[in-house]
Amino acid sequence: MNYKFKLTIGVMLFFMATTLKIYSQSIQVDVDKPTAKIQPTMWGIFFEDINFAADGGLYAELVKNRSFEFFDPKMGWDIERTNPDSFHFIITNRGTENPQNPRYASVILNDNKSSLSLVNEGFRGMGVKENNTYHFSILASLAKQSDVDLKVSLLDSVGEVIGETAVEIAGEAWKKYEVSFVCSKTDPKARLKLLFEGNGKVSFDMVSLFPDDTWKNRKGGLRADLVQKLADLNPGFFRFPGGCIVEGRDLSRRYQWKKTVGKIEDRTVMVNRWNTEFSHRSAPDYFQSFGLGFYEYFLLSEDIGAEPLPILNCGMACQFNTAEVVPLDQLEPYVQDALDLIEFANGSTDTEWGKLRADMGHPKPFNMKYIGVGNEQWGPQYFERYAFFEKAIMEKYPEISIVSTTGPFPEDPFFKYAKGELTKYKAALVDEHYYRTPDWFFENATRYDDYDRGSYKIFAVEYASHDRPGNDNNWLSALSEAAFMTGLERNADVVYMCSYAPLFAHVEGWQWRPDLIWFDNLNSVSTPNYYVQQLFGVNNGTDLLSIQLDGKDLTGQDGLYASSVWDANTKEVVIKIVNNNKEAKSTSVVLNSAKKFASKGTMTVIGTTDLKVYNTLENPDNIVPVNKEIKLSGSRLKLDLDPYSLTVIRVKQK
Given Cys at both, which of 151, 300, 306, 654 links 596, Cβ 3.0 to 4.6 Å? Predict the structure, then answer.
């Protein structure tokens, strides 16, 4: 036989054998033998007002320091003078007369030729859109024998007028005035100008500007593009308002839900605890107006089909800061806050707090099922206080599931102490936090394999893979999270809730990174991490299925990680596979079932060999999921898994 012919045949046989060998590595999915129920709350959202996520972000208000309640009451406002001798601008503090909103501004003009302008800079500017309508409002009072005109203008980034209107203020009684106008230009750095002209004194408060195109077009509502990104995650739950923000640097600055409901003008403005938390990202203008308060959180949960999961202060400030605690004999108001919150969410309109909910526009209960006691607390001082909450809540509302905590780290002495203590209590869910490197996430796909199935259930509430030094939301971080999440799903009998954190970040106002969704004043971008969360969220399923290679779960063998579920609602098998290899992997999947399946299925793939790639506002599609069609041969699928990829497969029963 010719030598060259022999060589050619040999090469061909080698490649055929290699291919057959790879495809012969069959991944087995036991479709007819579900091993556990998957909670509809499995994948959800964790929200905290960090990185300007609320004011300047999700809450669509464009005016910063609208009620002059910042430490510097003029912060965010520039005074433009035409004749300094003919006007006065003052801030009045009413103190105990109106403790929720003590300050208001006044302009005094001495003659008809005088004028004064106030210009508000917004949150790193105001993002406005051409042909969009904007709604301006102001609380104002005109002193006797005064004649003052107010002109309202929207200025672009170079000072040109791109929208204007006028407000006619009349009478001494405080009154809300509302006008609307259309913007003639798109600009991410617009400003709002108030021009006062005339003679006399006018006092004003709650200066506000909202776009017309809010989520569901609600007056004074939320930024539509950001809410849509939340809805597109298909979240099972919505945890709010944090996060460390619940605790406060000290107890005087803790989050108090009762101060965030009722009339907007009666909600107490408070400094945000991330204001100066990080010296390298100081934000002295970071406050909380609470226009996005507990009522709005509940309403948002309802809008996006997520179970509301509020977290309350347990009588402890942040242990990384002051570690301040309230004495046990003074804990009762904190416990009562929890009971009153349940009444606010679920109580009838005949109750005090249920009536307030109805008065705010929602007579129907929100049907809250969960409440969290404390955030990231640790040590005996936490469990001493937790016991009071558990006793009171279980006695009055035994149907409510309580969420407890194990502290800020996934493994340390405090974590181990918490695990020991929690066996004594009736916590339905226990949260665990993991901010770790990509390697940690790959290595911990088996974290819950050996957890006690007879004990409490896990709330994987805060996780994010940190790929230092930049902590960018790159594909490596997202891929490692995907591998870890297959382990969460594979242990769905003990893991009931999971969420990435933090959720939002303003590109010019962030304090912490990485984050799931980045935005500026006009646009937003989904990170690779977002797409991973979304692919798990929209492919949740109802029943857990075994998926194995050579009789073992896929937890990193040969660089593969996998989980599988059955979706009883759509009659589909759903398979998620992570390939953490720089080469493509060819394998086959066998669906072990008496069921018959369609000859075609769908496959969604996200991946790239450039592990450092990430999406930006300028280039939002650097890495995005791609949908493909796949064919079945009976109950077998042949797969070519892309390098460094997450693949989600759906196969429908005939």
Answer: 654
